[in-house]
Amino acid sequence: KQEVTQIPAALSVPEGENLVLNCSFTDSAIYNLQWFRQDPGKGLTSLLLIQSSQREQTSGRLNASLDKSSGRSTLYIAASQPGDSATYLCAVRAVQGGSEKLVFGKGTKLTVNP
Amino acid sequence: GAGVSQSPRYKVAKRGQDVALRCDPISGHVSLFWYQQALGQGPEFLTYFQNEAQLDKSGLPSDRFFAERPEGSVSTLKIQRTQQEDSAVYLCASSLARQGSSYNSPLHFGNGTRLTVT
User: Fold this and answer.
1) Minimal Cα–Cα distance from B66 to chain A, Å?
2) For chain A, how big is the Rg over CA atoms in Å?
3) CB contact under 8 A, A102 and B45
4) What is the DSSP track for B57-118?
5) Is B98 on the interface with A (CB under 8 A)?
C-alpha cells in the first residue's frame, strides 16, 4: 500500500529565508506527484505537478524535484514571504485499490514570520 | 472559468440525521473524486467517478455513505444516520482526463464542505 510521509510536520521561518519541504513515498510506481497549498478553512490549490518521467518543475519562487527511484520529492521555496504561510500537501497519483487516485501526506504547516 | 464548487460550505447535523453534499465539477471534466479530511490530517480517498460510472468506492467507510453522479456532471455524497466520527471536511476534486490516459491532468479541488455532527 502506497504511503506518503512529509517532514517536518511544522516549520517556522523568518521572512526572506529559502526553505525546503520534504516528501517521501513507499512505492515508486507512480504516474505523477503533485504539491498543493491549503489555507485554513479552504480547499487545496495545486502548485506544481511533476510527471513520473520528469525530474523537476518550477513556478515563480517554487521549485519541486522528483526522484522516483528513491521515492522522494522536495519543494523549494525561495525568498519566503508571510503570504506563503499555509499547509503544504504532497500527493502521489498511483493505482491503489483498483483505480488511480491521489494518496496524500499529512502536510507541512509553514509559518513565515515578518 | 468557474472552478469546482461545493455546497453547502458548512453543515451542522444532529447525530442520526441524513445529509447530502453537492459537488459541481469543472465543466467537461471526466474524472471526479471525493475525499474526506479530518482535522490535522491529509485528505483520504472515498470514491471515484469516470463520467457517470462509479469505478471505485473502496474508500467509503461504511454502507451509510453513498455517492452518485447520474448524468456525469454534478455529484452528490450522501451520509445516512450521521455519527460524530463523520465530522470532517469533505472535498471534491475533478480532472479533465480519464484514468489510464497517457496525459495525467492535475486535480482541481473545491473549497470543501465542513460537516459537524453534534
Assistant:
1) 18
2) 14
3) yes
4) -TT--STTEEEE-TTSS-EEEEESS--GGG-EEEEEEEESSPTT-SS-PPPEE---EEEEE-
5) no
Cis peptide, bond prior to residue B43, ω within 30 of zero: no
Mean pLDDT of chain A: 94
Q: Which residue, among A101, A106, A108, A109, would best test binding to B if mutated, counting the most B CBs under 10 Å from its CB?
A: A101
For B42, the closest of A43, A49, A106 (CB atoms) is A106
CA dist A76 and B61 (Å) reads 36
Instruction: Kindly report the backbone phi and psi dihedral angles of residue A81, in degrees, each rounded to the nearest multiple of 5, phi listed first.
Output: -125, 155
Q: Which amino acid is at A38?
A: Q
H-run or E-run covering A74: strand A72-77
Grid cell, residue A97, equals: 485499490
Model confidence at B100: pLDDT above 70: no
Percent of chain A at pLDDT > 90 equals 84
Whether B96 and B105 have beta carbons less than 8 Å apart is answered as: yes
3-state SS assignment for residue A82? helix
User: Residue holding cell 503570504?
Assistant: A83
Taking only the tens place, the pLDDT of each residue in B18-63 is 999 999 999 999 999 999 999 989 999 999 999 999 999 999 999 9
Closest to B107 (Cβ–Cβ): which among A99, A102, A105?
Answer: A102
Residues A10-53: pLDDT tens digits? Answer: 999 999 999 999 999 999 999 899 999 999 888 899 999 999 99
Q: Nearest 5 degrees, angle CA A38-CA B116-CA B44?
A: 45
